[in-house]
Here is the input.
Amino acid sequence: MADPRALMAQYQAGDAAAFRELYALAAPRLLGYLSKLSRSRAVADDLLQQTFLKIHRARAAYVAGADPLPWFYAIAHRTFLDEARRVQRGIVKTTDEVPEVAAGIDGQADDRRDEPRVDPELARAAIDALAELPVSQREAVVLTKLEGKSVAEAAEIAGTTVGAMKVRAHRGYEALRRLLGGKPKGAAA
Amino acid sequence: MSDPVDRALDALAKAPTPAPALGNALEAELAALAPASPRRPARQLAIALAASLVYAGCLLAVLTIRRDLGELPRGWLVGVGAAWLGGFALPLYLALVPKRGSMTPRWQAAAALAIVLSLAFVVLGWNVHPSGPSSLYYGWERFSHGQGCLWLGLATALVPVALGSIFLRGALPIRSRWIAAALGAGGGCLGGLLLHMHCRITDRMHVGLIHGGVVVVAAVLAAIIVPRTTDRPFAD
Here is the structure.
């Protein structure tokens, strides 16, 4: 896998091919993040394009040698929140829309045929339950449990403290447990 | 992985999310792609510190040094001057220079410092304000006459705040207000240093509320105004 630092440096130097590689590397991750936050693939696609436009316009702010991915995620985070504020709701959600992230996962992508098949019912249940969480808890669960970020990385992306991120992730996870019918942590078996 | 939450999250994490092709707007911008210089935080910090100190020095040369300077305790003069100088440099460092390998400025430390500085210089000036025979006393009666110092302090803060906001354009997708407040507090401290060397009004109300108040007002104004510049690349 190409090094995002090197790609970012080449892109900043004016190499459009490096940007395309960077997009191929980062866009699926950012789209996954935005899809799980927004619950709508159409909205997430739009937010992804906006995010990369903003990255492009702010590329002079890149510090040589830094990992650009947390910065990309932070821009995606802000883009999502701006959109959420714009529609003046707690979450960005297309009414009566079947959650497309869950709806489209009963097959496998071409490049993931070796991986175990996804259980669409379980994924649908997860995304429905996630949608019930407040935005801050949903984002904490998405970043720490689904995107594989550490609590510190997640806090950096969301612009909060490590302690607050831990609390949000824990509360979100416990709320998911209630929604998905699991036993609370510490309960007798 | 028997826990239903873990199984459901695992299923969702494995759901493929193939990204769409680049949109037309992005393709159009890429077609006109021009090289951009990377941000060099250490160099920007050096420029901001040097240019601000030269500007403050020029202002002081025009305004003249306080007449009671030789009558005041040397330790207080040097100690408080060093505190003002540190209060100027440290927030600029935290705002402009991210941790190695990161692009995101240390907003938590910068925010904490902006708050501490805003309170500390008001309290310090209120409690420690020696005077000499040539010093002036305004008190509450003529408190408002000292407002010139507030404007002078804010004018001094302009250069570091403006430079910081230019240097950080596009670097702050989140928490830009706190970084801006730190820039303002740093600029306010430079204003405080200038007043420390220029103003001979030594009552606690003036030194605490006006000289210290410069830091508070500069931090608040910067938090309101600076994000308009730094956040511009993120506006729709």
